[in-house]
Known about the structure:
InterPro entries: Aldolase_TIM (IPR013785), BKACE (IPR008567). The radius of gyration is 17 Å and the shape is globular. With 243 residues, the chain is an alpha/beta fold. The chain has a single domain (3-242), classed as Aldolase class I (TIM Barrel). The chain is built from 9 helices and 8 strands.
Amino acid sequence: MIVQACINGARDAAFHPALPLTPEAMAADCRACILAGAGEIHLHTRGPDGRESLAREVMDETMRLVREAVPGTLVGVSTGDWIEKSDPRTLAAIAAWRALPDYASVNLSEPAAPAVMQALSARGVGIEAGLASVADAERLVGLLLDRPPLRILIEIGEQDFGEATAVVEGIHAVLDKAGLRRPVQLHGMDETVWHFARMAAGRRWSTRVGLEDGRLLPDGTVAEDNAALVRAAVEIYRQAAAQ
């Protein structure tokens, strides 16, 4: 089990004053999150204009600085299709990377997901299979993959606790029936961040927290930064382990 820090995502600067949007800021933030107890990092690389980018020069510079800041830490990135807004550009960017992330998340809801997964596997990059619905899970188990994903990323957008939990149970049922038993990382968004952090800890799954997913601490106050969110999640896991 790990607490992964998701430090920025697709958020813009107005979301939180501590949101890291440059390679230098990301590197410093990653270090703070690891010191706070995070086991891994997930980030969205940004170009000089602050926009998300998978371009080789952007990936290479970000990976270089982050590796220097947190040596030995596994670092992952997003491949969301909104980043390059073109499947051929996404695939070309992956093929051009020189400084590789350890893994990348792939959203099974996106049409090009199988091709993106194949491209990542060809580069030796691990895959977080992002599942946001039962349909995503059914699509994943129906694919003929060269190798199984590094982990299953169950990422829930529904904000109602009952509806969101039902989606998780449906996804897990599909995976279980298919015998696809990979490490699971469960996380919510905004209102459900801490609901799912507690659920993940109770089930001995991993989770992720950070400004990509939400800015509030469990008590409803705004977190100072990503490290504060990580510390709160680590405490949830500590309490779960003590029970």
